[in-house]
Amino acid sequence: MTANAHTTASPEGLAAQLTATGALDKRWRPAFEAVPRHWFVPDVIWPGKFQGTGQASAIDRRSHPDAWWDAVYSDRALTTQWDDGEHTGPEPGKVPSCSSSMPTMVAGMLDDLDLQPGMRVLEIGTGEGWNTALLCHRTGEANVTTVETDPALADRARTRLRERGLTPICLTGDGSLGHPERAPFDRIIATCSLARIPTQWLGQARPDSVIVAPWAPDYGSEAIVRLSVTDSGNAHGRFTRSSAFMRLRQQRRRSRPLREYLGGRDWPADATQGTTSLSPDEIGPWERMFALGVQLPGVFVWPETHNEGTYRLWLRDKEVTSWASADFAPGRDEFDIAQSGPRRLWDEVEAAYRWWIQQGRPGIECFGLTVVGEHRVWLGDPSQPVPQWCSTSDDWTAPCDDDA
């Protein structure tokens, strides 16, 4: 399959489109034109949907080459692996575990990285290898080290890179450990989401270096953070945009079954029931989830969809001591809630939501992160840490202490 250079469905066309929208910095346009995305995309893909979330039906290059080509040169993420490679066949698996990221996201993160020619860079999450190749074009392959935890993906990416004459250091292993043998690095970039920035990365980064990574609170949602590393080995920086990456495998959350929270009983079990005027839909948008999630440590959310637009929003803690639910139905002004355990999780959500409203509904770019052993999210500047709500304290109308 080929495409004319001036068409949108081509490396040059994609680069031109991204440049026109402001997503692609002019410094990176030569790399996007010289390193075609299709070199690093397998025959079978599941394109992300243009609207909403999830993946469209599989497209096989061998039977539908035109549709495959158009998907590759659209601004969509392409799922390329399910269930850590255990799933086979054309139907989607349970959990996507590798993808070729959306080109606007790739371009934005590379712009955040501010990678200059000759800089030494560590990439965590080789995946299919496209981002690795872009890094090689920008700074020189001898300066690129990339780590992939999945042996099959690492071998596939290594082969594709070599076929294109690129021989960066391609390692198979635990990306959270970095690669001390090649340290120190001027830049570190992760293409998988993190619950915490590994201390090994900070130790392998030069002073004044930059780390770009997707970071996610327990609650859900996620954003790209651009961190500057200090002389003392700490880091701080702002979030630049929302994101949705697959979690670093070594930091995946292992959810406990809902029945364990309910003690084996049917809902509402021993919960206290009531109503709320805060609609679950009000706390559902992705960026809003982030603003709430950074205030709710150890809490995660999950919607259970019912019929005709109704759903039950579940809140659970990581310790399997507390849970809450809120039932949404269209057109209602009051919503049924239930809460159980020492943490009153819905009350905490309401407190976090009120704080966000009081701050003027700040977006993701208003928040930042400081890593000084622990991770502290702040609003505006590092002197303004966001509250950490904890309803087990005697007077929890005020934010919890750091140790709560």
Automatic annotation (TrEMBL):
PANTHER family referenced in this protein's UniProt entry, alphabetically: PROTEIN-L-ISOASPARTATE O-METHYLTRANSFERASE, PROTEIN-L-ISOASPARTATE(D-ASPARTATE) O-METHYLTRANSFERASE
An annotated Gene Ontology molecular function: protein-L-isoaspartate (D-aspartate) O-methyltransferase activity
The keyword Lyase appears for this protein: no
Protein name: Protein-L-isoaspartate O-methyltransferase
CDD domains noted in UniProt: AdoMet_MTases (cd02440)
Organism listed in the record: Streptomyces daliensis
BP terms from Gene Ontology: methylation
Family of the protein in this entry: Belongs to the methyltransferase superfamily. L-isoaspartyl/D-aspartyl protein methyltransferase family.
Lineage of source species: Bacteria, Bacillati, Actinomycetota, Actinomycetes, Kitasatosporales
InterPro entries: PCMT, SAM-dependent_MTases_sf
